[in-house]
Design goal:
Helix 4 packs parallel to helix 5, helix 8 runs antiparallel to helix 9 and helix 9 packs across helix 10. It contains ten helices and 13 strands. Strand 9, helix 5 and strand 10 form a beta-alpha-beta unit. It has one domain: UDP-N-acetylmuramoyl-L-alanine:D-glutamate ligase (3-Layer(aba) Sandwich). With 310 residues, it is an alpha/beta fold. 39% of the residues lie in helices and 24% in strands.
C-alpha cells in the first residue's frame, strides 16, 4: 500500500508554553517552551504514523525554523519530503493561562512562496501520487500561493487515480470543492462559509452536506462541531457521533487527528462508518494530550472501544 501523502503548504514550528496568568502590560515569565512540528498535513502524517499507518509529509521548508521542524519529524520517524523555499518557515506560539485554564494560540501568516516554488511543490506532489494513493491537502495557504492551489492538487490526484482529502478554510476550501474531492473535513463554521448562510444545527449541516455530495463536490463530508460532536455524510450514509467526553488538555490538532484517524482506518480497508468512529476516537485522544502532543494509539484504541460498545 502506497503511503498517505500529506501536503502542508504552510507548515509551522509550534512552540507551547504556559504562564501563571495573562496580564496586559506586564512581563510574564514563561515555562520552558516545548517544540512540535506543526501544520495541518504534517499533523495528519504524524497521527497516521502513530496509529500504525504509512504516511509521508510533503512541505516547503526555509530558514532555521524549517530545519528544526524537519529534525523533529525525523525524531518521530515520520517519512518526509521537503521543497526548499527562500523565505523562512513560520512559527506559532501557544500559551496556556494557568489561572484561567485557557489556551491562547498566536498564528503567523507564513512565508511568501513564489509561483515557481509553488509549482515545484505541486510537481513533487504529483510524483508521490499514483493509482490508489490517498492524498491529503491540509492547513492554510501561505502568502503567494493561488487560492486554487488545493484545487490544482485535487486535479493532479484525480489524473493519477488517487483520492484527494481536503481540510482547509475560506476561499481555498470553496475553490477546491469546484474540482471535486474524495473527502472534505470542514468545521461547522467553515461549512457555513461555503454555504453562505448559518447552519445552526446538526440537521442543517447534514442537509447542506448532502447538497455537496449530490453535486459531487465531495464523495464524503465530515463536519467537526466541537462539543456537538461530528457528522458523517456520504451518498448512502448519515451518522452523527456525539463528542467524546474527556478532560481537555489541549485543543490543537484535534481536527487533524480526526482526519488522520479516519485515513489510517480507511487505508486498512475499514468501512467508512467504522473509520469515522476511529477518527472521532483519535480526536478525543488528542484532546486529552496537553499542548500540541496529539493522540497516541493506545488511548485512541481504548476510546474507540468505548464507542463501539455503546
Amino acid at each position: 500500500m502506497s503511503p498517505i501523502v500529506c501536503l502542508t503548504p504552510n507548515p509551522a514550528l509550534d512552540v507551547t508554553t504556559a504562564v501563571a496568568e495573562l496580564v496586559d502590560q506586564h512581563k510574564m515569565r514563561c515555562d520552558p517552551g516545548e517544540e512540535q512540528p506543526g501544520g495541518g498535513g504534517i499533523n495528519v502524517a504524524r497521527v497516521v504514523c502513530r496509529l500504525g499507518g504509512n504516511a509521508i509529509a510533503l512541505y516547503p521548508v526555509g530558514g532555521p525554523y524549517g530545519e528544526r521542524l524537519s529534525i523533529l519529524l525525523d525524531a518521530e520517524r515520520v517519512p518526509r519530503q521537503s521543497v526548499p523555499i527562500s523565505a523562512p518557515t513560520r512559527f506559532s506560539f501557544i500559551v496556556r493561562d494557568k489561572a484561567g485554564g485557557r489556551q491562547y494560540r498566536f498564528v503567523l501568516p507564513g512565508p511568501a512562496v513564489s509561483a515557481s516554488e509553488g509549482a515545484e511543490i505541486l510537481a513533487r506532489f504529483g510524483r508521490l501520487v499514483s493509482d490508489g494513493t490517498i492524498a491529503v491537502g491540509s492547513g492554510s495557504l501561505p502568502p503567494g500561493l493561488a487560492e486554487d492551489f488545493y484545487g490544482q492538487a485535487a486535479r493532479i490526484a484525480a489524473q493519477r487515480h488517487g483520492r484527494f482529502v481536503l481540510d482547509t478554510s475560506g476561499g481555498a476550501l470553496a475553490a477546491a470543492l469546484q474540482h471535486g474531492v474524495y473527502l472534505v473535513k470542514p468545521s461547522l463554521r467553515e461549512l457555513e462559509t461555503v454555504a453562505g448562510r448559518p447552519l445552526g444545527s446538526p440537521e442543517a449541516a447534514v442537509a447542506f452536506s448532502r447538497e455537496l455530495v449530490a453535486r459531487r463536490a465531495a464523495e464524503i463530508v465530515v463536519v467537526s462541531m466541537g462539543a456537538a460532536g461530528a457528522i458523517l455524510v456520504a451518498e448512502r450514509t448519515v451518522r452523527h457521533q456525539p463528542a467524546v467526553e474527556v478532560t481537555v488538555g489541549g485543543t490543537v490538532g484535534a481536527g487533524d487527528s480526526l482526519v488522520g484517524g479516519m485515513l489510517a482506518a480507511i487505508s486498512r480497508g475499514w468501512p467508512i462508518e467504522d473509520a469515522f468512529g476511529y477518527g472521532v476516537a483519535a480526536a478525543g485522544a488528542s484532546l486529552l494530550a496537553p499542548g500540541t502532543k496529539l493522540c497516541d494509539r493506545a488511548t485512541t484504541d481504548r476510546i474507540y472501544g468505548t464507542l463501539t460498545a455503546l
